Amino acid sequence: MTMIAPDPVAPDPKVERALTRRRWLGRLRGGSAGQPIWRQPIAVAALVILGGWLLLAIFAPLIAPYDPLAQSPEAYAPPSATHWFGTDSLGRDILSRVIHGARLSIPLALAIVSLALLVGGLLGLVAGYLGRFVDEALMRLTDLVFAFPQIILAMAVTAAFGPNTRNAVLALVIVSWPVYARVIRSAVLSMRGDDYLSAARLLGVGPIRALRRDVLPNSIGPAIVLATLELGNAVLLLAALSFLGLGPRPPAAEWGSMVALGSQDLSMWWVSVFPGLAILTVVMAFNVLGDALRDRLDPRYAKGR
Amino acid sequence: MSVSPRRLRAGAFALATLAIISTTACTAGGSGGNANGGGATTLTVNTSFVLKTLDPGRVYEATGLTAVHALYDTLLTFEGSDVSKPVPALAESYEASADAKTFTFKLRSGVTFSDGSPLTADDVVFSLNRLKNIKGSPAVTVSELSVSKTDDNTVVVTSETANPNVPVVLSMPSTAVINANVARENGAKDGEDAAQGDTAQQYLDTNSIGSGPYVLKSYEPESQVVLEANPNYWGEAPQFERVVLRNMDVQTQKLTMQRAEAAEISLDISGKLLEGLPETLQTSGVQDTVYFLFLNADPAVSPVTSNPKFNQALRAAIDYQGVAALYGQGAAPGAGLVAPAFPGTLPEGEASTRDVNKAKALLAEANLTNPTVKFNYPAITYKGVDLGTVATKVQGDVAEAGITLELNPQPLTTFLDEMRGGKVALGFTPQSLNYPVADSLINNMAPGQATALRSGWTVERADPAIVAAGEKVVETLDLAARATAMQEWQRLMNQSSPYVVLASNSSTVVATADLTGADYTAAGWQVDVAAVGRK
């Protein structure tokens, strides 16, 4: 049993840890680790780039100069005043296709990561909280998924279900949920013996309510950071699948398939370079932002640790 | 023992240097066919290998055919890029009976194999029987033929059905004559049971036992095949003493040819890839491939594609000139199913033309508002053309007439499986011929035949005029009249068959400026390396 009146000079470290844990969001504004995000120029640049892409995606039909699917006889026109990024083999305007591509890549990446977070998070919570056989079974399942290279497993899944957007997202969720399950499970494990959980159980709180009210809010922080980092990875994996012809069906404007089209003849460099740059900027921005977030939210990774 | 990081770095640097030096050396050796200072002259042929075997009885793939044609002789052959009429090779002359069932070949005297032994009628009979009886991929071309000798210099080939194209079949590399004695010693069989008993393939992959201008020096099916001039060749010796067939992907071929100086050929640079090559290179191409759509005629599979009005509307909605432009130089809008390289092709002026208003009117007549069809095609690049690009162009064209196509790119094997299953509503595929005669089109694509049934095109669903026109082609024995009948058949096919011919495209030989005779041929072997010489 804990003391009823703890020593005010030296508070019980367990209690303090439990109390500060829920403050992870507060760290965004400064405090324990490093500079606030808006004082880091690289992180700000990443935010600006992502904001720009978001605006492009939302207002694509207003911004894009041409219909991304409209074909014209002007095939393989190099970049010029009329077609800033040139045209592809069917005379489609690459600038418009790159802009419309953001409408596929960014929301799909968000969908992949949130679905994976949902599935992985739930399984991790259950595994960590229930322990024993359930934990063993679920963790061996994650090992099983980890055993395959991500892109190979995703290819196998899309090839089996048939290539289209829904199945590509499904495949990428299937290959990416285990990281979240592991992170959340370990967070849950580290707090399993904590007093406030025991107290809640003594008060008659059932497992579902305890998970929802006490465990989840205290373990989701690291998973959110991981999700931001994984967004870039999701964009990249989706582009890779679609490069291999397993992504959204043509003629949809998707960055990966546009790079694939351009790779057939690299002398028309503009066909693949511009969608490639789009992938590069989005992925880099997500990664930089994820890193900055991690530094802020997880003191263990802070600079100068 | 521990290794210091510095030593590791030094070692890595040394390795890298070595790798660079050896790569440079390889490149210099590979393309230096001309820099030989009195040694053997080498012709380098770059191609993306499609190679399973060099056994004439089993060879079916492009690279294998190129090599086998140089290693072995056939009774007749084709010269240069002309595939209209076979010319004498091992047979100095032949006679065909009036019913086109019996063909008598008079063998050239004094022909020897590369080991010096004479080539006789027995070798011819053995080789053709083996081809037929081991039942490899090329055996279909001779399944109706039987062969016998009347004396040591005369061979008679008989066909079960009237077939004026037997001389063409006997010009194909798979009908090459092999040294029967050496072949038997190494496991070759020619009897009825040869399909199980013949074990000569391994030997024939690494040894050539023919009478052709070259002999096989080395066979590495993943990287290169080296041929050397046959010292005992009965004909005029080839100009190049060595021929190296190198496996190379098409982008690398383009880069290589941009830098090649002499004695180098590439076989796969075609279509759009030809753009940007140096002016000094010579190209030779023939339109021997047609690309067509197939619509399912079975209402149970698709009530839309089986509707004759939809068929007509789809034909009218496609921009054939625009599709042909996607293929780059050497392509043309498709006129008929027979490619321009072959007898019986339709003149280019008869290519279909676009009329979007007509297409809309036809759809309205058929009460089809916004018809939607799934459009299957293999996700491959064929002869330098990405089929997905062509399919997307077709989709964009017909969308203007109000037809929605859902593009469904598939891996090649999946595509072929579904096509064979006969449940594909609308598909897109290229087609090349096994040998330079278009008769096989009638045998496969006329109503009720194997390929036609995959599109649900039975005799009952077809226009009786098409059935009659097809029969007329098969019955006509005179080759010129047969070609005319073939044109009539195609004109009818263009009216109401399930096939919509989009374009015909060239295969191309690209050669350095110093070469002569580097002509592409549609006969199957792509280029006759023995005919390639220097200016």
Secondary structure layout:
The complex is a heterodimer of chains A (305) and B (535).
Chain A: H1 13-21, H2 41-58, H3 60-63, H4 94-130, H5 132-146, H6 150-161, H7 165-190, H8 195-202, H9 207-243, H10 255-263, H11 269-297
Helix pairs in contact in A: 2-4, 2-11, 4-5, 4-7, 4-9, 4-11, 5-7, 6-7, 7-9, 8-9, 9-10, 9-11, 10-11
Chain B: H1 5-31, E1 42-47, H2 62-71, E2 76-77, E3 87-88, E4 91-96, E5 102-107, H3 121-133, E6 145-151, E7 154-159, H4 166-169, H5 180-185, H6 194-197, H7 201-206, E8 214-220, E9 224-229, E10 242-247, H8 250-259, E11 264-266, E12 282-295, H9 308-317, H10 320-326, E13 332-333, H11 356-365, E14 372-378, E15 381-382, E16 385-386, H12 387-399, E17 404-410, H13 412-421, E18 426-432, H14 439-445, H15 450-454, H16 464-475, H17 479-496, E19 499-511, E20 515-516, E21 533-534
Helix pairs in contact in B: 9-11, 16-17
What does this structure look like?
The complex is a heterodimer of chains A (305) and B (535). With 305 residues, chain A is mainly alpha-helical. Chain A has helices at 13-21, 41-58, 60-63, 94-130, 132-146, 150-161, 165-190, 195-202, 207-243, 255-263, 269-297. Chain A is 67% helix and 0% strand. The longest helix of chain A has 37 residues, at 94-130. With 535 residues, chain B is of the alpha+beta class. Chain B is 32% helix and 21% strand. Chain B is built from 17 helices and 21 strands. In chain B, strands 1, 8, 9, 10, 11, 12, 13, 14, 17, 18 and 19 form an eleven-stranded mixed β-sheet that branches. A four-stranded antiparallel β-sheet of chain B has the order 4-5-7-6, with helices on one face. The model of chain B is unreliable at 1-8 and 10-39 (pLDDT under 50).
